[in-house]
Amino acid sequence: MTARARDWRQGGRRPRRSFVGWRNRLLSSPSVLSRLGRLPVVRHLARREGEALFAIVSGFVQSQVLAALVELRVLHLLMEETATPGALAPRLNLPPERCRVLLQAGAALGLLERTRRGYRTSRRGAALVGVPGLEAMIRHHDVLYRDLSDPVALFRGESETELAQVWPYVLSGQMEAEDAARYSTLMAESQRMVAEDTLDAVSLRRVRHLMDVGGGTGAFLREVARRHPGMRLTLFDLPQVLEAARGGESDVSGEVDIVAGDFRSNPLPEGADAISLGRVLYDHDDRTVAALLRRVHDALPPGGQVIVSEPMSGGAWPERATDVYFALYTLAMRTGRTRSADEIATHLSEAGFSSIRCPRARRPFVTRVVTATRA
């Protein structure tokens, strides 16, 4: 009896080397790569793959160039003028040659443009300046980078991360006034984009009363009020966080009902026919998420709608923005997790929701949306 026949009789098939394994062994051979690189048909493909690989290898260096440009406000300084490294160096307190390296690197990243007269901010650089909260987030990345200094320890769960201290409410539900102010500012500046993309994806025409849970200073509700004047709005968050919603330029107390509480230990107020959770679930573990969604379900009337909006994993189709950046960010927070839309849909279903939908979001790297209805 042949070996193949024995395998079939035993109910299986002899393991065969797969095409993917053969391909990977082939492409991991330096001599094969060298020969393939000389063929006109595959030369372009080989170069493209090589450039993509090097972009991954040099990613941290690129992010540090970005951090330096933001910290030194180079993009602001060159928004309406062109300058040489020698002219700009004294203003940045940098040696001219090192200033030249920074500007050249910024141009290579497409954030600056090089002209015969010097360097100026590019369209991409101007867009970066115009994105609310993006520069603040880039400055905030120094904490994340320190947490990533030993990535193996992070993945093994052996490191004490600073991000867990930056967002202490995740671990304990408690937050000092200074921490609450920092959190509120960072979230409010970027929440407008999230609100715009969420409301572009979801219709609130039939909603009379919307409650935003974990809504910080009310940035999301301000955008709702602008688009749907007359709708009743309620903001629910920790008492320390809500202090920022009652004062200063971000004051929403005149148009929004403000209710203080901790959704991990308090029932949610009833009366709203829609509840939004903007960038809330990915801050917390599965047990907390399950309990929160049950509280949301209990607070809504039959036919009430829940709106979940946050960066989500690509699931079966991994995405760089969420499955690399947000996944590791939430990992460093120690309790959070970036979930796919399917995972969130499962949580919603287990909490008692039905009619679960995933409307298309305009910019998935900003946010994705899942909605559901209480039966």
TrEMBL record:
Residues of the O-methyltransferase dimerisation domain: 56-128
InterPro entries (UniProt xref): COMT-like, COMT_C, COMT_dimerisation, SAM-dependent_MTases_sf, WH-like_DNA-bd_sf, WH_DNA-bd_sf
CDD domains listed in its UniProt record: AdoMet_MTases
Keyword S-adenosyl-L-methionine: yes
A GO biological process held by the record: methylation
One of the Pfam families matching this protein, by short name: Methyltransf_2
Keyword Transmembrane helix belongs to the record: no
Keywords carried by this UniProt record: Methyltransferase, S-adenosyl-L-methionine, Transferase
GO molecular function: O-methyltransferase activity; protein dimerization activity
Domain O-methyltransferase C-terminal as annotated: residue spans: 146-354
Protein name: Demethylspheroidene O-methyltransferase
The organism of origin for this protein: Tranquillimonas alkanivorans
